[in-house]
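This is your field. Please look over both lines of this record.
***
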Amino acid sequence: MTANRSRRRPITRPVFHHTTFATLKLDEMVAFYESVAGLEPVYHGTDGAWLTNDEANHRIALLALPDLKAPVDKGHTAGLHHTAFEYADFHAWLDNYERLAERGIRPFLNLDHGMTMSMYYQDPEGNGVEIQFDTFGSWTKSKEWMWASQEFSANPIGEYFDPDMLVAARAEGLDWEEIHRRARAGEYVPEVIPQVHLPELW
């Protein structure tokens, strides 16, 4: 019998469950993730917290480990850039932007990637947090578009947009598909183009 030598990936694949951060700002991090993505602590102690916004026991863990050091030049070093959370539709996604903006929580970067429209926030430790929605309404369709389209291949980062312009366009009665089309055409570009690098908070 010939052995199967081409086992590059597991036949039964695990699903993504959670991300863990070491933190010097435990309570601030708990408050931030609850505000931005509705993550509530299942357990919140002095040494750590475990947060979820669905049926899982936790989706983000925060560990207040002893003797942690502040990062140096975090926005320009290799490592995790951001985690992401997805809304089911444009209106819930934009409503969330307005809710957070009223609280003074604003994204540092906004991009229409084609398969998603995405706003990038930054948590108290300087980690990126993407809030997105799938413009195809189907992971199957958006995955196929990413794989097959020349448009994504030519510009995988996408088009910058000003979210306040999206709010104004919706208030004028434009539907989300037209807003998405105009964002892709560069009609909502902000006055200042931000860097994709994480802003340095330390």
Observations:
- The domain at 16-65 is CATH 3.30.720.120 (Signal recognition particle alu RNA binding heterodimer, srp9/1).
- The chain has six helices and nine strands.
